[in-house]
Model the fold of this input.
Amino acid sequence: MIYCSIALGLVFFVLFVIKCHKQRSVGGVFLKNAISAFFIITAIIALVDKPSEFQYGILILAGLVFGMLGDIYLDQKWVYPADDRKYLYAGFISFAIGHLFYIPAIILNARNYGLEMKYLWFAAAFAVLVSAFVLISEKPTKQHFGEFKITVMLYGLVVAGMAGVSMVAVICTKQPRFICCAIGGVMFLLSDLILSPMYFGPKEKNNPTNFFINHLTYYIAQYLLAFSISLVPALTN
Done:
């Protein structure tokens, strides 16, 4: 069942890219929502199959729901361009909240399999470095964050923090679940690094290639996190 859900999500992703890679449309919004619905369905199937993973699974599921909300809000930028600032703020907040569910899900679960809290300062340092890099690169990449500068900085800390926590969990536990999370975290970072100039940079950055890579990396991340619920870590001595 879980592979069927992932496959259906892939089908809707292909349809979405075909329909919207050159121009956004209302029909594309429905296709995008379907892709998000299937990563949530994937998580639910995994959680039903692995009820022993309730704490981890429910936190990941909550993060995915906020991810879907973030998608919905950002889509409204194209449907209601006059209110694009409002929807962009809402998208930032929703995605950030989603990551604030992912981070404790990974930490709490990885502690059962060898994660030591003292190593999380590596994740914090990584988050600060990535956020600083994004801000420093504003002018060289011809971006203009304007009133969103603080929002971008805080959002960068949260997203990079999730990636950093996942990588620390992999190093400490060597478990496939956290490898999925770490790959997902890196995909999130790549997705947002591509999306940033699309929103805040020159118009030519909002092109079909960036559109495709941005969405591909984003959905790989969400589906990996959903699938990770089904990967029950082995107990360590």
User: Anything to note?
Assistant: The two ends are 33 Å apart (CA to CA). The CA atoms of residues 73 and 91 lie 5 Å apart. Residues 84-110 form the longest helix (27 residues). DSSP finds eight helices and no strands in the chain.
